[in-house]
Amino acid sequence: MAHAIRMPKHRWADFVMLGFYPPLWKIPPVKRATTYRLMSLAGETLRPLEGVRVLDLTRVLAGPFATMILGDLGAEVIKVERPGSGDDTRQWGPPFVGSESAYFLSVNRNKKSIAIDMKRPQGVKILTELAEVSDVVVENFVPGKLQQMGLGYNQLSGVNPRLIYCSISGYGQTGPQSQSPGYDSIASAVSGMMHITGPEGGDPVRPGVAMTDLATGLYAHGAIMAALLHRHNTGRGVHIDCNLLSSQVSCLSHIAANYLNAGKEARRWGTAHESIVPYQGFRTKDGHIVVAAGNDKQFVKVCEVLKLTSLTQEPKYKTNKLRVQNRRELINLLNQRFMEETTSDWLRRFTGSGVPVGPINSIQEVFADPQVKHNDLIQAMNHPTAGRISVPGPAVRYSSFCPSEATPPPLIGQHTTQNLDRSG
Amino acid sequence: MAHAIRMPKHRWADFVMLGFYPPLWKIPPVKRATTYRLMSLAGETLRPLEGVRVLDLTRVLAGPFATMILGDLGAEVIKVERPGSGDDTRQWGPPFVGSESAYFLSVNRNKKSIAIDMKRPQGVKILTELAEVSDVVVENFVPGKLQQMGLGYNQLSGVNPRLIYCSISGYGQTGPQSQSPGYDSIASAVSGMMHITGPEGGDPVRPGVAMTDLATGLYAHGAIMAALLHRHNTGRGVHIDCNLLSSQVSCLSHIAANYLNAGKEARRWGTAHESIVPYQGFRTKDGHIVVAAGNDKQFVKVCEVLKLTSLTQEPKYKTNKLRVQNRRELINLLNQRFMEETTSDWLRRFTGSGVPVGPINSIQEVFADPQVKHNDLIQAMNHPTAGRISVPGPAVRYSSFCPSEATPPPLIGQHTTQVLRETLSYSDDVITDLLESGAVAQNEVS
């Protein structure tokens, strides 16, 4: 990375910006933390987390997803893996691309890998020294495990009081379930997510991708940045507790509030909405279409497009409330009509109607979508052994900088020597 | 909020910390932005976003969810609503708690509400002045809409170059679909989420809560803080583009990578895992249980607990790979056995086995769970008209501070007068005129 000026983080830089040059004895010692905050006249091309070093002890999905986003924002992410197999997901396939699983490739760009045996004293020593010169540690071990190894928050913040230590677990750092390992599908079940997902009258299912893990990773990436902001004011680090259970329960939002305030239990609705009709998926001749007619005007439009205008005269479908009451009958009628044409036919006919509609896209269809391509959601890069690979790109765009030029997911221990040379 | 010392944000505070007192002429003017960065010797009790002002123009779920988290972290969130009905979700019920919908209550704590008619010039003027003294604007209008009203990024960053402007939309600020309004269920369909969710061999369904909206809100809250960090270095704001489509597609992670790299299409698996067996939900006598036996050792344990030890001798179930190949038969056998006892019986028998298991909890069961209570996930507070209410609490905990003491979700226009008077220093006469003209509205409760 090229930077115009590189300055120590401890305030001297501020002075320089304003034309003051205080005597060196006034500057707090910089020996402890060798990360630098960047000050540059060409500030706009820098990314928010340039100069931030993240020591990443996480494995699988929630943690790596969070640190990947930090890497996209310019942080240096050092992924610590055990020698040999490393992160379990390296073996999670097929499919594999060369020797790498697609799973591992999908969430590990922009990181370096160092292979360190944490069970040995030399390994613990190296990681402690790395923590001394890092800004953030992220870990997802069962609570207490790292403490036993000498790498817990108390221990590492002792050597680096500015350290932000983010723990990701299944259920929390303390409490009756804290020792249970975190698995997305169990957490999804325990937190109520499965109970509310599935066909009406059918069995619960889980979201097709591990949304509980991913939501936790998203909470964690925000929390780490909140802690970095906090540190600007306090000069100190913090221990962050993120967990699958809390993340998913918080995400229950109105479903939870319905129960907590009105005792109203939730149930499964398939693709439908409990209180809006018609607002769901319909089968077509060759697939499905989702229609979201949120008010009476849009319902009339739906009837026009379907050439079922008689329905607009029907008193029992006049308002949303009535349509909800008489939903079964109405949905049957609409169902039959939708089955008569193909999805693309319907999409065409709904164009310009003002009614929100969309196809239920397969993954192939998703990546053929012009808006998906426009949003740069296919991120391609060269991998040293797997060749040309593609992963889903960063979700958020900024007007003043681009996400990091993606470096490919590392091979196990690819950067071990490089890192030890630098910090040693 | 009580603070030990309150200082202007423009570096003078740093000098004070180090014992320097530079002449005032050296300090950049603070008239434009009246937000302050807080420096306190008791720094630990302050929250990360104390002193940050967020002007919240969002409605429904994704935006309000994001700004709620910023409020939990100490930001001052000013929610702008149109006079009369305000945020649509105020009416989304039943259930209602008093006059407030449970929906609205669930994602709007720690905010003030001002009722401003954005279609009138006085309304636009007020919002422009508020943007001048705010750190962040968050909005979820169809791209271009606010620009037409004079409240777009270009316009507001012109009056406040430090402004962080976060746009949340359905599909993005530009591109062929950018003008389509964002609905979670459509975005969930278009982005592939529905295609991969549902029973094996059955129809697609959507996640039971709007995870696409929520993921977008989570991306946005992080992006806003990234922009605040960025501003420390650059001194400038930025325009952020968050949208439902990109958020959900990015969350496809390995499902997407399977397709992009190996052409492998995804399908629906119910509660099961494509490549691990047994790793799914089973019906019990009175409900369901989910078992996640990730390796051969755990499979053996499952057979022991189920008293089906003969299965461990069966060659075709010896390794995970073989179990995946012979899954239908094996799952049937396990299914039959699980049906013979209740969920709580099975949970008891699996205790100490080392196999991850869990019940499929109803919402009632979720909030009876001791760990959920331990994690403070039921956040209760007093609401001026609805009385005692409860909402799901913040998900993340920090060792050095607690989330904001929750102020209840505001009534529509509850804080209009307060904000005009205290934040913009409007005189009482001016405020009275605005109220009479209808450009702004004040709730009878303040």
Description:
The structure is a homodimer. Helix content of chain A is 36%, strand content 17%. Chain A is of the alpha/beta class. Chain A folds into 2 domains: 255 residues, Rossmann fold; 81 residues, formyl-coa transferase, domain 3 (2-Layer Sandwich), CATH 3.30.1540. Chain A has a 6-stranded parallel sheet, with helices on both faces. Chain A has a 3-stranded antiparallel sheet with strand order 11-12-13, covered by helices on one side. In chain A, a hairpin with a 4-residue loop joins strand 11 and strand 12. In chain A, helix 8 packs across helix 9. Chain A is elongated and about 80 Å long. Chain A starts with a strand and ends with a helix. The N terminus of chain A is likely disordered. At the A-B interface, helix 1, strand 2, strand 5, helix 3 and helix 7 of A face helix 1, helix 3, helix 7, helix 8 and strand 10 of B. Strand 16 of chain A pairs antiparallel with strand 10 of chain B, so a sheet runs across the interface. Chain A: It is found in: Mitochondrion. Chain A: Keywords: Acetylation, Mitochondrion, Transferase, Transit peptide. Chain A: It catalyses: itaconate + glutaryl-CoA = itaconyl-CoA + glutarate; 3-hydroxy-3-methylglutarate + glutaryl-CoA = (3S)-3-hydroxy-3-methylglutaryl-CoA + glutarate; itaconate + succinyl-CoA = itaconyl-CoA + succinate; glutarate + succinyl-CoA = glutaryl-CoA + succinate.
